[in-house]
Amino acid sequence: MTRAARLTALAALCLVTVVLLLPAAISVSTGGATPEFLGQFGRWLWPLFGAMVLVAIGLAVWERVRGHETSSRTAALGRVETRVKSLLASSLAAQAQIKLGALRQPQLSVRVDGEEVSSSDLEAVYDRLGRTMVLVGPIGSGRSTLLGELCLVLVERARNDPEAPIPVLVDLATWRAYGNRKPTEFTAWLLRELNRRYGISRSAGTIWLRRGRIAVLIDGLDEVPRIDRAHCESELAPFASVVCSTEPIENLPSVFVDPLSRGQILEYIASVSPRLDGLESALTPEIWERLDSPLALNLLALTHLDKQVDTIGDDFVGSFVVERLSGQRGAGPTIRALKFLARLDRPDLGAPVHMPHRRAWLPLLPTRPLWLLFVRAVPAAYAGGVCAVAFLTGLRFGLWSALAFVVAATSLLVLVNKLPHVFHPPGRAHGILTAALGFLAGVLMGLLVGLAGLWLGGFGTSWPYAVAYVFVVVVSFFLALGFIPGDAPVPWAVLIAAAPGVSMIWVGPYSVLAGMGMGFSAGVAGGIFAAAVGRVWRTVRPVQHQRMRTGRPWWIQPVIPVLGLAGALGGLNTWGSWGTALGVALGLLVTPTAARDYVWPFDALAEVAAEGLTRPLSLGELSFRRKALLHLAQDRLLLTRVDGDYRFAHVALRDHLASCDPTALVRATRR
């Protein structure tokens, strides 16, 4: 009803606006008569037309955002069926079936806890147990495939029986328990999943859950951290119909997935003949012991596809990865990228194309890129910025102003220093090229900051003398107020603000205002830069800190003031005004405020700068060609695509790549 009302209102608005208001407004604007029914409101036609257009745009955006939602049972069943079929088609079992040319996978059987007889009809077992059970089996036993197939059967049943519940398949990987949760929070997560995955509106989902009109099939319980497992099981108990798990759950009937028999395996190998000829004779007793699951069988078959096999290793996952990437020129970057993505702690098996927040991946980096950032790039960039701003200051305002900027900027760096102790790791790591690139980047940013400062300095030149005078004193007071620490900064701020008040009696407010523009621009940039580096440092793991020996190369200490003085040489042709130098120093008082993490908008700018600082660090693990690398991995069945996103084909592949040695794996693929 809500969507119908929204669409009706949108259609009515468009009709009234186009058919009535627009022609009347055009008629009045071109000298025509105002329609009689409008009376005295003819002059408001165009404003009313604009308001109606804005309302129509708002309704259209609302429909775009919320239009995927449905309260229709038929539409919900269609979306569930489409997504579950997509999940099954993207699974490793389905991809193996396509690659091998097999008609189907071996038929899996299940056995109810306490019974000896197995059954291949999971639907009948589900009905017999009261439509509530736990599907138990080890990783790779085919539980997720069985769950998806059962969901499709229940979808068809719900289409034929209006009283049957709507089956929905949800993944617990996106749920986490942190601290004490309210009883409704799991329900809120479930409703959000129903809305996000299947477009079921929250109001309809709430009603259907309350009335038992939804059968919740849950996968991914094994991805929930062990510390949260008990809490998760107690929360999902009132909602779940079927749960996939490697272990039984208390108070829920357990149904165990039977391992594959030798006959099923031999029958499957024979069905793929002649592509797997020679595989049966190469199976040793040790291999037969481990060859009891669909995952192991698929990996083994794909590894030895179209090959005459003499010996088989017992590491099915490792052999599969090596075979899939063998002979590839980009195997090295692909392996590093996959290992990096596998370690991102994405329990939903996601392999994102776009980099997530730095907290997810920065602790995974080795020591060297972090060392290059903090020891080479950061000091060099700051020195380059100081050099460029000092050069522009000297060129425009003279040597006194440039020297005042260099001294004040260097002192404030020490005062609001959010950089960690400069360190260097064991071994040699010079990074002169990194320092040079950082210096050039700092020079470019310094030129931009200096130009912005010149623009700010000339902003008040047209103001009356009294207005400019009062403005300088008031701004100096507030800048000093944010600069001075302690419980009683007001007297000191008044004292500092008195300095330009007295000085402007001789030099006037305009020269001080020009210097304040340059100082304020540089102070904001320096404070944000220091805050950004501090944020990045806090993301680094303590174990990475411990791998680095504290110390400081001798040239790091004086490099910033020395390069700043080199930039100040641009003002050798003139000494300039000491009033402008005072303005530069006053503007730089904003640096501590800009360096704080809780002052808006500086905190938001510092976050953006921190992300910009860290993104280049990921290029060693995930290069600019990340889409091509992910597509190659998808073509090699290591990744798959679900809902338009890349994800690992199986949790076993993800875990193997996360723990592998990339160098050894590259050598193995070359062999």
Structural description of this entry:
The longest helix has 31 residues, at 367-397. The chain has 29 helices and 10 strands. The strands form 3 sheets. Strands 1-6-2-5-4-3 form a 6-stranded mixed sheet, sandwiched between helices. With 671 residues, it is α/β, with parallel strands linked by helices. It is 60% helix and 6% strand.
Strand content: 5-15%
Please give the oligomerization state of what you see. single chain
**Helix fraction bin:** 55-70%
Task: State Rg.
Answer: 34 Å
Alpha-beta content class: alpha/beta
Q: Which residues sit in consecutive blocks of at least 5 with pLDDT less than 50?
A: 418-428
How would you summarize this macromolecular structure in one to three sentences?
This protein is α/β, with parallel strands linked by helices. The chain has 29 helices and ten strands. Helix content is 60%, strand content 6%.
